[in-house]
Write a structure and sequence with these properties.
- With about 300 residues, the chain is of the alpha/beta class.
- The chain has 2 domains: about 20-105 and about 220-305, D-Maltodextrin-Binding Protein, domain 2 (3-Layer(aba) Sandwich); about 110-220, D-Maltodextrin-Binding Protein, domain 2 (3-Layer(aba) Sandwich).
- The chain is built from 18 helices and 9 strands.
- Helix 2 (about 35-50) links the parallel strand 1 (about 25-30) and strand 2.
- The termini are far apart.
- It holds the Pfam family OpuAC.
Length: about 300
């Protein structure tokens, strides 16, 4: 009886304790955008070098946020503010998703046209409808679930675009369409952003006048790291890394070029970017330990075959 009572008490006490987080596996997601594929992969390379396992899924932005709310995902490296504000607003006040760090400044995100279209007089959103025939009343976006702002503009007949169609495909599909149209000197309006190799691959111009939807300065944006509620406290070493992981526009554009132009996998591109910028590791991994308590900086350098500093 005493043994049974002790066992029962132990079970009740155990049930009363909060569930322990599984910090061994870090679950990330990205929406199929090359910049976020790269930054998520850099994050994975570092976390795996620390001795953890990672997995990353490609999901629509609304699904990412719902999955984080349900605690099915841990980390999202790509909250573009203000462009993604409409997606995040439903979770902002509840605290179910925490925005913990600005990992990129100097980004932009709005509509663009080839320079020859700009030179012909299309300088702003308001100019598009005047040339509806040249554009075939179409504006090109990326993956479904990432074009809600474009769809909203058309649905509300903003800028006289109520009869236009938003063509949704993928980032690669959109860029292939842009390349075809530019080669033929045809007119096209599309979703453009930086960092991205499109800014050097194409002679393009960003359109003015979209401030109410994309924000000022051509959708000038900062990109933030987000985690599910409480994750930093549950997994402090990973949380510290996420607080220190900051990128640059040029670094991301470089890595995206490896993926898009050189056809590297995101993980291989991430390793090459890190190898090209090894000094970044000092900041990213300062004061961080591996799963066995040793220096994360030394472990990641060894994992990537980089010579440790003297």
């Amino acid at each position: 009886m005493k043994s049974l009572l002790s066992t029962t008490c132990a079970l009740l006490f155990s049930a009363a304790l909060p569930a322990q987080a599984d910090c061994n596996l870090v679950r990330l997601a990205e929406p199929g955008w090359t910049d976020l594929a790269l930054t998520s992969a850099i994050t994975q390379v570092l976390i795996e070098g620390m001795g953890h396992k990672t997995e990353s899924k490609i999901l629509g932005i609304p699904v990412i946020y719902e999955s984080m709310k349900r605690k099915d995902l841990d980390v999202f490296m790509g909250y573009w503010d203000p462009a993604m504000e409409t997606y995040f607003n439903a979770y902002r006040d509840s605290g179910e998703i925490e925005t913990i760090h600005t990992n990129l400044e100097g980004a932009k995100f709005t509509w663009a046209v080839p320079s020859y279209v700009y030179d012909a007089g299309v300088h702003s959103f308001a100019d598009l409808a005047k040339h509806a025939d040249e554009f075939d009343e179409k504006v090109y976006g990326i993956e479904p679930g990432s074009n809600d702002i474009m769809l909203d503009i058309v649905a509300k007949n903003e800028f006289g675009l109520g009869d236009w169609k938003v063509v949704e495909s993928s980032e690669q599909g959109m860029l292939s369409q842009v390349a075809r149209e530019i080669k033929r000197k045809k007119w096209i309006a599309f979703l453009g952003w930086a960092p991205h190799p499109m800014n050097t691959a194409f002679d393009l111009k960003y359109l003015e006048g979209g401030d109410a939807y994309y924000g000022p300065n051509f959708g000038g944006a900062t990109v933030h790291t987000q985690v599910r509620k409480g994750y930093q406290k549950e997994c402090p070493q990973i949380g510290k890394l996420l607080d220190q992981l900051t990128f640059t526009v040029s670094m991301e554009s470089e890595g995206m070029g490896y993926i898009l132009d050189d056809k590297m996998s995101a993980m291989d591109a991430a390793r090459k970017v890190i190898a090209n910028h090894p000094d970044m590791l000092d900041t990213w991994l300062e004061g961080i330990s591996t799963t066995d308590g040793s220096s994360a900086l030394a472990a990641v350098n060894k994992d990537l075959g980089l010579a440790p500093k003297p």
